[in-house]
Amino acid sequence: MPAHTPAPDLYRHSLRLMMDKDIDAWVALWADDAVMEFPFAPEGWPRRLEGREAVAAYMRHYPDHIDLHDFPELRIHETTDPTTVVVEMRAVGRLVRTGAPYDMTYIAVVTVEDGRFTSYRDYWNPLVLQQPGADFVEDAR
Prior knowledge:
Blueprint: H1 6-19, H2 23-27, E1 30-37, E2 48-50, H3 52-59, H4 62-65, E3 66-70, E4 75-78, E5 84-95, E6 101-113, E7 116-124, H5 137-140
Parallel strand pairs: 1-7
Antiparallel strand pairs: 1-2, 3-5, 4-5, 5-6, 6-7
């Protein structure tokens, strides 16, 4: 098992900021040249964001669409690379516009260097977009 690294702590802190709806502070956790990827993104959704500003633009209105309440199933796995973690999690909350429940599962491969996210591959579940009440998707793209 690798020695404890700051990546798990940074990731947990980022989730607290998301629940607090502090997107500016969340974006500040990203390196200037960071890359965020969505390998399972359906057509019409971004697959790759390059740079902190692109991540900021993508996330700016997130709290207007999704009100996160908890991450009840969070598992952070440290890897043999001390800068990289693999995260399994479930996010629950509600969709702001409709009040419908939000329940999404994710797997993420996250790299942290010098206390900032540098790479984030987010394998979110696109099947949630097909569920009733998921009409937030038009505004969230």
